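Sample entry (261 residues):
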Amino acid sequence: SSQSDEIIGGVFSHKEYPGAIHMFPPIDDNKIGIRLILEELGIKNKSTENPPSWIGQIQIPGLSEIKEQIDSENFKIEESQKTISQLTDNQIKIKEYGKLLYADSDDLEEIVLQSCKELGLVNVRSGREGNVEDMLFDLSTSDYDICVVEVKSSENNMKLEHVRQTLHWKLDYEENHKPKGLLVANIYRKNEYPTNISQRESFKDFEDFCKKYDICIIPTTVIFNLICKKLEGKKIDAKELALLISKTTGTLTDVSSAIKK
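Predicted structure, serialized as tokens:
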């Protein structure tokens, strides 16, 4: 109770368990509740009279200048918040590209799709509705009009069945198109990068198969490095990159001709 013997709450506890429950009765008037609490704390509540309505019309020197300064600072805060929000969005977007080095399944497929768009490949899209894995982009060479993309990852080396899947998608499009098969592969994805880059970019066991069925393999490390070059301010020649893919049967790691100053 308060010093005036008014009940302001109760405490319930149990000797075998720590903690307590504090119960306060409902108070219709907030002022009464505040007065009771302040009184219990030994603080006297000084009552103040509300100012009359006309006092706001009185011009007190210095107030308008202070208001202008406050408005100016609030504007700066709002602009800073907008800038911070934009920078945060960019930070999140750039960090996403790190998934090219470790991601699996849908996460990898989505960042490969986004990366191909960022690098300027033409008309990057999902081949079938709801299936990002079967990805396409346009080619404009005498031999090919589209590139059919398979995206795969592995904690170890690639398997032949993954390369065969690329051939399967490629054959699906041969009736109406001149397709090029591309396997984007993220192997040894849990191993530290870049210390194992040579291992991540080695597909020697599948070179013969790729040459026989006209399939290009591009490691995700190569795409990651292209993205990094673009973020550094270098220009990526998308036409040259597409030409390199269309000309390659086997592993494509040297894309330096697509990087311009």
